[in-house]
Design brief:
The chain is of the alpha/beta class. The protein has one domain: Alpha-Beta Barrel (TIM Barrel). It is built from 12 helices and 10 strands. The strands form 2 sheets. An 8-stranded parallel barrel has the order 1-2-3-6-7-8-9-10, surrounded by 6 helices. The chain has a two-stranded antiparallel sheet with strand order 4-5. This is Aldo/keto reductase. InterPro entries: AKR2_Oxidoreductase, NAD(P)_OxRdtase_dom_sf, NADP_OxRdtase_dom.
């Protein structure tokens, strides 16, 4: 996997399954969320991303049928391995049964047995397109970063030419990032950083300095930093600059010197187009000062995220 510096990628969490925790999905997707409809929407967003020059796509075993939809798109469009980089993740399993009202939508297990099974499933779908395989939502508390069976499997995968990484979650992201760097194993780290949740910033800078590519997820905080939920200060700053709140929020992420790939989680082509304008938005000291007050305590941020409904 090549080193990426301040480029936009596409994450498929919001389009691979019928329900997710992004604000405004009723407006974006309507009621028709059967498999065929979601496949068509996924392909539309992928087409738009490809046309715009996006060359990194992020999926996971738990994103419903996202890997399946992506594999079909790659084959249909005749895209060869190496023409686009694909990162997937293992550890969560989708258990929602394609139901909006499922009691649980995903189940976490960071065991070596699940790694082996899910890697096989991912390779069956994505084959040689798979560039990066990541632990999904690693934490220090889970023990996965000290599990020698898991780490051995990841070392073997890396030796075979697939980069390995991890994604982080929760108010102790920084501790997880530092522990991952200390292993010397990982090529990438994918973490949440946005104008509301900045707690991982210094650790991500350390990871970048250690040679890891930093992938940033949830740059618009599951819709809380878009026009649907933007705090007044962000809405006003975006209006003054003639851009959308999501574009300004993503420009803030792109301005971090440690940011490698910044993911758009767009569910529609219109959202993707707005997100991608972030690359042309200037983030300056005035914006930094005006929006510094949006930062929340990490515990507060993650509690609010956990309360978002699957819709």
């Amino acid at each position: 996997m090549r080193k990426w510096v301040q480029e936009m990628g596409l994450g498929l969490a919001a389009v691979g399954r019928p329900a997710y925790i992004t604000l405004g999905r009723d407006e974006d997707l309507g009621r028709d969320r059967d498999v065929a409809a979601m496949r068509a929407r996924t392909w539309e967003v992928l087409d738009a991303a490809w046309a715009a020059g996006v060359r990194y796509v992020d999926v996971a075993r738990s994103y419903g049928r996202a890997e399946e939809f992506l594999a079909g798109w790659l084959a249909d469009r005749g895209i060869r391995p190496g023409e686009i980089e694909i990162g997937s993740k293992w550890g969560y399993e989708y258990v929602g049964g394609w139901r909006m009202d499922a009691a649980r939508h995903e189940e976490k297990d960071l065991s070596a047995a699940r790694l082996r099974r899910q890697l096989g499933e991912t390779r069956e779908l994505l084959g040689e397109h798979l560039t990066l395989y990541q632990i999904h939502s690693a934490t220090v508390e889970s023990g996965v970063l000290d599990d020698e069976e898991v780490l051995g499997e990841l070392r073997a995968l890396r030796a075979g030419g697939v980069a390995v990484g991890l994604s982080t979650t929760g108010p102790r992201q920084a501790a997880t990032i530092d522990r991952a760097v200390a292993t010397g194993l990982f090529d990438t780290v994918q973490s949440t950083w946005n104008l509301l949740e900045r707690s991982a910033g210094e650790a991500l800078a350390r990871a970048h300095a250690a040679g890891l590519t930093v992938i940033v997820k949830e740059g618009v905080a599951n819709g809380r930093l878009t026009s649907r939920g933007a705090p007044p200060a962000l809405a006003d700053a975006a209006r003054e600059r003639g851009v959308t709140p999501d574009a300004l929020a993503l420009a803030a992420v792109l301005a971090r010197p440690w940011a490698g790939i910044v993911l758009s989680g767009a569910a529609t082509t219109a959202q993707l187009a707005e997100n991608l304008t972030a690359s042309a938005v200037t983030w300056d000291d005035e914006a930094e000062k005006a929006l510094a007050g949006l930062a929340e305590d990490a515990e507060t941020y993650w509690a609010r995220r956990a309360a978002l409904p699957w819709a």
